Automatic annotation (TrEMBL):
<comment type="similarity">
    <text>Belongs to the aldehyde dehydrogenase family.</text>
</comment>
<dbReference type="GO" id="GO:0016620">
    <property type="term" value="F:oxidoreductase activity, acting on the aldehyde or oxo group of donors, NAD or NADP as acceptor"/>
</dbReference>
<dbReference type="Pfam" id="PF00171">
    <property type="entry name" value="Aldedh"/>
</dbReference>
<dbReference type="InterPro" id="IPR016162">
    <property type="entry name" value="Ald_DH_N"/>
</dbReference>
<keyword id="KW-0560">Oxidoreductase</keyword>
<dbReference type="InterPro" id="IPR016161">
    <property type="entry name" value="Ald_DH/histidinol_DH"/>
</dbReference>
<protein>
    <submittedName>
        <fullName>Aldehyde dehydrogenase family protein</fullName>
    </submittedName>
</protein>
<dbReference type="InterPro" id="IPR015590">
    <property type="entry name" value="Aldehyde_DH_dom"/>
</dbReference>
<feature type="domain" description="Aldehyde dehydrogenase">
    <location>
        <begin position="14"/>
        <end position="482"/>
    </location>
</feature>
<dbReference type="InterPro" id="IPR016163">
    <property type="entry name" value="Ald_DH_C"/>
</dbReference>
Amino acid sequence: MADRTWRLLIDGEWREPSGGHYPIVNPATEQVVGHAPEAGVADVADAVAAARAAFPAWSRTAPEERARLLDRVADLVSAHQDEIVPLAQAETGSTMAIARATQVPVTVRRLRRYARGALEQRDVPLAPQLVPASALAPGALVGAVAARRPVGVVGCITPYNFPIGTMAGKLAPALAMGNTAVVKPAPQDPLACLLLAELFAEAGFPPGVVNVVTGSTAETGVALVDSPDVDMISFTGSTAVGTRIAAAGGRTMKRMLLELGGKGAALVLADADLDTAVTGICATWTFLSGQGCILPTRAVVHRSIYRTVVRHLADRAGSLKVGDPLASETVLGPVISAAQRDRAEQLVESARAEGGAVVAGGRRPACSPGFYVAPTLITNVNQSMTVAREEVFGPVICVIPFDTEEEGVAIVNDTRFGLHNYVYTADPARGYRIAARLRSGYVGVNTGHQHPEAPFGGFGMSGIGRDGGSFGLDAYSEVQSVVWA
């Protein structure tokens, strides 16, 4: 696909971008995958105007029609998986195993879930109340309903680590609720998102309902956030960018759904099943090369089992194959860019300088070309160290000991982030009690699995709002109270 010409989707048409095109680089080979459109401010304005014009008719479209179209896109994604998966893999640098297991299956599941969601009744009837006469109205028995209404035009800004799955996770509930959308994919890997946009158009969504603009700089996203005709921003990405979006969006009182950074911890109690705990912690190395905000990058381990856990983790790190993501035996592919590789390496060096001990990894793998980071394990860590406080977004785990449950909980909570934590214990009831004390939006007890209907989002600097399941439908709607006598 390197020679394919990609365009912007605006008002149902494929348009040439005003700024030309820019190269998309495969993180494993450093070769050009394709050239993405460079949208300008005027392109974004046109996309927003198209979404605004399409909103009145789309918001009144029958829920059954919205459901049919979302199901149709799911059918098309399944039919085109042999085209989507290699492109998404090449852009992200993920292993082929991860690309096959996540890209299309997750996208299809989300589309089908919100096809059903379009038919879901989210209005809440309220019991009649007898109200006395006032200057406004005579006394009456008053009924009411808290009705869910679409927000309007939604700007969807997606991350580079999971491009099309996140695009579907934003678009599907937004469209199911009757919103229109402008999607701005991450600059590093937007081509699969443009391919997904083609399938939305092929499915028959009316012009202007789904628009996609791409760009290599912050200008495209800034124009989307600043537009007074955008009613909501749904953003997944770094906390640094999310805080700027929140500040800019506040000037026009936009609704915000912000899923931001994380510094997840696995709290491993003395009675934990070590194999389960170690496997869960190792997800930081084995899933997308550590490029996930939900990953347990801090292992907070009871001192009685600390050395054993460190030994098991070090053994696992040494057995993980780093290299060509297309090779079946590869477990860790590259990170997304040279800049991200350099950031991870700098944080490892800061750990060394602050007294940490690098017991596995810590040096650049002998893989060239490509942006590779070795699975790295750091001990002798405390919460004052930079590597324990900052999100690495790479395959780096630090291990911190604790003596009492109270101390362990305090270490886990000693962070500005609060997205996803984990508790490992032989006593699920104890795990549930501890979860109530952890300041994070999601807690896994003895598991790294997520429940597809559970609300997802963060505390603190990990974001604002919740999506997932029916909570996703609520996230892309406003509440309107309708009262009658």
